[in-house]
Amino acid sequence: MIAVDWGTSSFRAFRVRDGQVLARRETPHGILHVGSDEFAPTLRRVVGPWLEAGETQILMAGMVGSRQGWLEVPYLPCPAGVGELAAALTAVPFEGAAVRIVPGLRSVDANGVPEVMRGEETQIAALLPTLDLAIACLPGSHSKWVEIAEERITGLTTHMTGEAFAALRQHTILARTMAEGETHTDAFRRGVVRSAEQGGLLHHLFGVRTQALFGELPETEAASYLSGLLVGHEVVAMAPVGKVHLIGTPALCSLYALAISYYGAEPVVAPADAAALGLIEIAERAKWT
Amino acid sequence: MIAVDWGTSSFRAFRVRDGQVLARRETPHGILHVGSDEFAPTLRRVVGPWLEAGETQILMAGMVGSRQGWLEVPYLPCPAGVGELAAALTAVPFEGAAVRIVPGLRSVDANGVPEVMRGEETQIAALLPTLDLAIACLPGSHSKWVEIAEERITGLTTHMTGEAFAALRQHTILARTMAEGETHTDAFRRGVVRSAEQGGLLHHLFGVRTQALFGELPETEAASYLSGLLVGHEVVAMAPVGKVHLIGTPALCSLYALAISYYGAEPVVAPADAAALGLIEIAERAKWT
User: Fold this and answer.
1) Which end of chain A offers a freer environment for a tag, N or C, measured as fewer CB atoms within 10 Å?
2) Are residues A104 and A165 in the same domain?
3) Residue B277 lies inside a defined structural domain of this protein
4) A98-101: strand order across its sheet
């Protein structure tokens, strides 16, 4: 089988056999960079060699199933587990292989405001059968915190942390005191510590500026400090207790682990290739491979 | 006397006599739009007719006294009142009139992070002699909350609310669901109410997106809702009690008054022309007019 994690800004394909990833390809052809009639050709170009080698099934997840994607697949309501996801695959016409898309999930937060995800439900799917009461965090532009009970996703909370970071980093006065560079872990940690102090996020943002003005925050550390500030505010708002399963890139997971530990919870980083493992789990439950 | 409020993006000049504003001029020549050797010519162009009519003294406040301004005037430490400001005026060479700049103020917040202001100390100066224990709020790109005791400014807290609004409004996915238009007061109020709910600001930001996606927030109201959300988070972080003196444009003061009332404090909108009145107060104390 071929598993495809097709998101907003990236395209990741995996050739899998017997639950193992045999080969992988990654391209920058996220749905934002693909015209509406270019989805099938893009897919064929990337996974064509695997089709020629005999693969006949392609299971996809992510924003490819959104209104801006190949085909809009309706959100499933929470609670939903691997069984519900596997029962709701949507077929897409494609010559030479059977193609299906995994639906996203929708919910409402504690105050009735809508919540949605597409792709993250799949990244977490391989973990679900092992979890009873649990929390998972999937960091990113729109970080997701997922509540799990009895192997099913019961609710989610999104934070616009990554995207807010980019907008503040590039399009405010803070940009003037920030140099490009590697992540500075100690500066990130200081930002997390600051997030626990009084005054609120909008006040703490101005402190990035004043500390730079008064020589207390070097240009090479300011972006990492800002990142720690935002991630810290995300984590403290969730007030996590006990284990938090982290799913994402190793670099981002390690920063979130730092913030989650600071606030007294226990980060557990999930295995890599979460999307591929989740697609395998869903395909097996759908009796599709 | 001529009073000048010369900020980052605007230039406001007032001709005053006997504590009254006789005439005013406003131009977009904020310091960001004026070359380093253009300050004197810009001033002369705008207030030249008043000099020809016999004025000989010009008192200025705002970012004109910053490193990016005409001449850098060191910050005074808090606590400081009209007396301290009047005693620390800095002269600028200018042919045909005596020109002075009012210093800005500096402080540290409850956790030792530096705080600064330039211009707001002057906008509040006319009120100071009437206040004992009080709080003032000066809304804007960088909103200032000022603590006052015994007629002096004892501390301040800045929130990057206006600038964060602009960056989020224009440079994130939220821009896609927002139309230009007038402020929608009821949507602003709903944003303020949302700020009191659980989840934190970064989560509430994503709710702007999902409510738009699910048809719960019209495009013409989304920007006002976002503004209410941010202003609400600013006000709740300050937890104001009792009277809050509001100094700023009537439109912004009226929105902040709504948020301050929602959180149980009592907004009191200060008279217009606060900068001119403050410059008059400082000039009188300096025995300069």
Assistant:
1) C
2) no
3) no
4) A20-27, A11-17, A2-6, A57-61, A98-101, A90-92
SS3 B36: coil
pLDDT at res. A2: 97
CATH number at residue A16: 3.30.420.300
CA distance A253 to B259: 37
Residue A220 three-state SS: helix
| Cβ within 8 Å of B, A 209-248 | 209-211, 213-214, 216, 230, 233-234, 236-238
Report the C-alpha gap between B277 and B86 in whole angstroms. 14
Q: B168–A164: do the CB atoms touch at under 8 Å?
A: yes
Compute the nearest-CA separation of B225 from chain A (Å). Answer: 14
- Give the confidence band of A289 by pLDDT, cuts at 50, 70, 90: low
Report the pLDDT averaged over residues A69-98: 97
Cβ(A153)–Cβ(A147) below 8 Å:
yes
Long-range contacts of A40-48 (CB under 8 A, 24+ apart): A40/A70, A40/A94, A40/A95, A42/A11, A43/A4, A43/A94, A43/A99, A44/A96, A46/A11, A46/A13, A47/A2, A47/A4, A47/A13, A47/A15
- Domain assignment present for A139: no
Does B79 sit behind a cis peptide bond, omega within 30 degrees of 0 on the bond before it? yes
What does the pLDDT read at residue B48? 96
| Nearest CA distance, A17 vs chain B (angstrom) | 38
